[in-house]
Specification:
Order of helices and strands: HHEHEHEHEHHEHEHHEHEHEHHHEHH
Structural class: alpha/beta
CATH topology of the largest domain: D-Maltodextrin-Binding Protein, domain 2
Length: 371
């Protein structure tokens, strides 16, 4: 696996959930026109975009898109990296009403209710969305029915498998969560600790979605008995323990967008993916951006949120952050079309349910699995 592939895959795992694809020229033009109109009354010379640690600070097409926003509006965008998504939210909650920046990018649906309860954002529905110029699916907007924040991207945490390993051993890859507790797959799965890892938490939530409040504990007891390995974070799981990267385990919790990253950054080049995705395991992560309550530049901040859902910016998300745009008009890069897995019925839990139970679930899991 190339150094570039390692960096790209690491970006996927450090957002919470981290070149550009094509978009229709007419869509981009509509987005630009809307941004210009919204920004006409914005008076700030610069605003600050608060982001998680995997958001690129410079030298990518995503940054070039932000430079285009500056050229169109006269508003410079400074990037403030505030740690991982949980750390970023903690800081934003402590400074709510007197924020460190103007717009925040990257709170996901496992943290959304906390952000809303802490009154981090100023409610706002982007002008391109409210005017019908940008369509975001109801499954995303229903999470923020009062415009509390704006859905900007999504992805799925899924069990990945090493295609070659299973072919070499004459074994079909597992297809369901139940398969993972079958003795045929003993000692094959490595997962991340949900107390220390966003994908680890997402996989725990997937099992809660499948087996319910009264059944997930028995499932994890069975996983433990079947030899599941737990590590602290995604990097260790994928690069040290996953067989495709040289480790012993042919199954790992990663992302539905990991296979296209393996193709895009393969060295030497290849036209097929060496890894596959167990679709039945996928838990949907949705990320949001929003105007920070108390910003000194609310009009400029709203103009930036408008831009973040426009085609010009959204088209750069897949090959920079390895997530999917929520703007339905944006075309995906061919590698995502050919190799990524987007489940038709991803596993999900309501943000409020996650927020109310997260700590309890993690404590129960820790006692059950780690002792």
């Amino acid at each position: 696996m190339s150094r570039h592939a390692r960096r790209a895959l690491a970006l996927i795992a450090t957002g919470g959930l981290t070149v550009g694809g094509a978009a229709c020229a007419s869509d981009a033009a509509e987005s630009n026109d809307t941004t210009d109109a919204t920004a006409a009354t914005a008076t700030a010379d610069s605003i600050t975009l608060v982001t998680y640690e995997s958001f690129p600070e410079s030298d990518t097409s995503l940054n070039d898109a932000l430079d285009a926003f500056t050229s169109e509006t006269g508003i410079a965008v400074d990037i403030l990296v505030a740690g991982d998504a949980g750390t970023m939210l903690s800081k934003a909650s402590l400074t709510a009403g007197n924020p460190e920046g103007d717009v925040m990018w990257g709170i996901d649906n496992t943290l959304l209710s906390r952000a809303i309860a802490d009154d981090v954002f100023e409610p706002y529905v982007p002008t391109p969305v409210s005017a019908g110029e940008v369509t975001i699916a109801d499954e995303f907007t229903s999470l923020v029915p009062n415009g509390e924040a704006t859905p900007v991207d999504f992805g799925d945490v899924c069990v990945n498998y090493d295609i070659g390993w299973f072919a070499d051993h004459g074994l079909e890859p597992p297809a369901t969560l139940d398969d993972l507790i079958d003795p045929a797959y003993a000692d094959m799965l490595v997962v991340q600790n949900p107390a220390t890892s966003s994908p680890g938490l997402a996989f725990l939530l997937a099992t809660i979605d499948e087996y319910g409040e009264g059944g997930w504990q028995d499932y994890w007891s069975a996983l433990d008995a079947n030899g599941v390995e737990v590590v602290d974070g995604w990097t260790q799981a994928y690069y040290e323990r996953f067989s495709w990267a040289g480790g012993p385990a042919p199954l790992v919790v990663s992302y539905g967008s990991s296979p296209p990253a393996e193709v895009i950054f393969a060295d030497p080049p290849r036209d097929d993916s060496p890894t596959g995705v167990m679709e039945a395991s996928c838990f949907r992560q949705v990320e949001f951006a929003g105007v920070l309550r108390g910003t000194d530049s609310p009009e400029a901040a709203r103009a930036l949120v408008d831009f973040l859902v426009g085609a010009a910016f959204q088209a750069e998300l897949p090959l920079n952050l390895f997530v999917y745009p929520t703007n339905e008009a944006v075309d995906l890069p061919p590698e995502f079309v050919d190799f990524a897995v987007v489940p038709t019925e991803p596993r999900q839990l309501e943000p409020q349910e996650i927020d109310e139970n997260r700590s309890t679930w993690i404590d129960e899991w820790t006692e059950l699995v780690l002792g």
